């Protein structure tokens, strides 16, 4: 799983991000390019167009939902999405909140950008249970002229 969440686990509000962190976007692009990314319909619809050089697997309960981009596959459950990536060395669950909740039990790694501020939101990242996850890498990024908030890249692996 890959996400950026505030200190109160906020992810977004009204299907939009709560911050603009260019270095985090660069990291997300670097990690996910060339891989399959699994997301909910609302997360997909928050993009102006599909992200380049990635296969998008979109989960929706709507059996009539279609997408006219060849780099997109529509499925109707987290299990169906995971079946499409079972032979891939790396794939990413990229959100939103409900997809993270459903996918967490299947994940082996979490790449989390922890934004050091609490936000009002309507979508949240699940609480990380440190009995299940071990923090193996941590890199602090201070607030600067391009980043309104300080944040830390955290890498967790399943225990």
UniProtKB/TrEMBL annotation:
It holds the Pfam family DHFR_1. It catalyses: (6S)-5,6,7,8-tetrahydrofolate + NADP(+) = 7,8-dihydrofolate + NADPH + H(+). Pathway: Cofactor biosynthesis; tetrahydrofolate biosynthesis; 5,6,7,8-tetrahydrofolate from 7,8-dihydrofolate: step 1/1. One of its GO terms (cellular component) is cytosol. The keyword NADP applies. It comes from the Bacteria. GO terms for molecular function: dihydrofolate reductase activity; NADP+ binding. One of its GO terms (biological process) is folic acid metabolic process. Its EC number is 1.5.1.3. PANTHER family: DIHYDROFOLATE REDUCTASE. Belongs to the dihydrofolate reductase family. This is Dihydrofolate reductase. It comes from Maribacter algarum (ex Zhang et al. 2020).
